[in-house]
Amino acid sequence: MADFDKLAAPVGTTLDRFIMMRQQDFLYATGELSQLLRDIALATKIVNREINRAGLINISGTYGAINVQGEEQQKMDVIANIRFIRALKNGGETCVIASEENDTIIDTEKYQGRYVVAIDPLDGSSNIDVNVSVGTIFSIYRRMSPINTPGTIEDFMQGGTQQVAAGYIIFGSSTMFVYTTGHGVNGFTYEHSLGEFFLSHPNMKIKDAGKIYSINEGLAMEMTEGVKAYLDYCKETDKETYRPYSCRYIGSLVADFHRNLLKGGIYIYPATKKLKTGKLRLLYEAFPLSFIIEQAGGKASDGINRMLEIKPTTLHQRTPLYIGSKTMVEKAEEMLRIHEAVKTSPQPLSKVERG
Ligand code: AHG
Ligand code: MN
Ligand code: MN
Predict the structure, then answer these.
(1) In a 10 Å sphere around its CB, with 0-12 CB exposed, 13-18 middle and 19+ buried, how is residue 195 labelled?
(2) How far is CA 211 from CA 151, 242, 257, 335, in A?
(3) What is the rounded CA–CA span in Å between residue 271 and residue 46?
(4) pLDDT value at position 236?
């Protein structure tokens, strides 16, 4: 294949063809990762159909169960979870799955599978009933456990830098499949009548600075001084930095993230008084989106540390999340440093020291 083709697949290339073309980016590629991505894309088409029918056939609404996070589980959560797990089991490349909807790891019994997948099968699920965008987020690692044995929880504790692929699907006004294998980010839009994803957003990049901040500001009183100071900063007027910013918050992480990726912006879910380590989950929300944002030229952290370098210790670990345009994330981190340092300083800083 010509180098040109490898670097720049034309808009309109199908997802299947694109995945095949990109397989050659990896030395000794066996095609298993490519097949795994295609399995996820297939499950996506099925879930997409279910989501589109949700209002019609009365499958939306609360299922009546509480999931492991202590949240109400929506019926579509269950359906999406079943569909993705089934596709990954049938595919045979995945030995073990971690899902938001399952307390413990899911043994696929495909012990020859060389990959492990962490997944949020339906993100923003409470938005289903009000016809607002929802999504799926996934993260893929090479297994650490020996081949031909069951996968283990340690397979998920490798850290975000070890991801071999990550992606999300947004079920919005269009359905899109966006993913990275560490060679840039590419977005594909679903053409319903053909049942195919087509490359529509090649080599996605996020602006260094944008005009949007996304946060559940209703919780402001629950947030730390640093976050509150950053929220004030967002509202100040300064032409050079496009302030005041616009506040946009859908309440589906995938949808907020996707908009900010396309337009430039920052998404924050900070630690709060009630949720001391934040709300979002490290393995199947923060890590995959952080891999994607870095590949798109943006930045992600927990307010202090680079997100991808955080060492996971539990399957459903939560983390604060600051993600989006590079300079915006840096500014938020700076505010946390200044204001939280002042707060914990034993001697109040003098005016001169504060500058
Ligand atoms: P999920 O539906 O997978 O549980 O995720 C919901 C998450 C995320 O999508 C969203 O950004 C966040 O919860 C919203 O939380 P608040 O309602 O606290 O703002
Ligand atoms: Mn979620
Ligand atoms: Mn979910």
Answers:
(1) exposed
(2) 43, 6, 14, 18
(3) 35
(4) 98
Ligand 1 atom closest to residue 67's alpha carbon, by position in its atom list? 4
- Over the stretch 131-172, which tens digit does the pLDDT of each residue have? 999 999 999 999 999 999 999 999 999 999 999 999 999 999
Alpha helices per DSSP H over 236-324:
253-263, 287-295
Indicate the range of 63-77, 121-135, 230-244, 290-304 predicted with least confidence: 63-77
Residue 70 has pLDDT above 80, yes or no: no
| Whether residue 241 has pLDDT greater than 90 | yes
| Ligand 1 atom nearest residue 256's Cα | 11
Q: Is the pTM of this model over 0.85?
A: yes
Cβ of 74 less than 6 Å from ligand 1: no
State the sign of the Cα–Cα–Cα–Cα dihedral 110, 111, 112, 118.
Answer: positive
Q: Inform me whether the pLDDT recorded for 2 exceeds 60.
A: no
Q: What is the Cα 86 distance to its own chain's centre?
A: 21
Beta bridge partners of 107: 96
pLDDT of residue 129: 84
- 96 C-alpha to center of ligand 2: Å? 20
Kindly write down the DSSP assignment for every residue of 109-120, as one continuous string. Answer: S-TT--EEEEEE
Please determine, for residue 233, whether its predicted confidence score (pLDDT) is greater than 70: yes
Ligand 1 contact via 125 beta carbon (within 6 Å) = yes
Whether the predicted pLDDT of 327 surpasses 70: yes
The preferred substitution site among 279, 316, 322 for testing ligand 1, maximizing ligand atoms within 8 Å of CB, is 279
Decide whether any atom of ligand 1 lies within 6 Å of the 288 Cβ: no
CA atoms within 13 A on the CB side of 64: 1
Is residue 120 within 8 A of residue 285, CB to CB? The reply is: yes
What do you get for the CA distance between the two ends of the chain, in Å? 58
Domains in the chain (CATH in brackets) are: 11-201 (3.30.540.10), 212-344 (3.40.190.80)
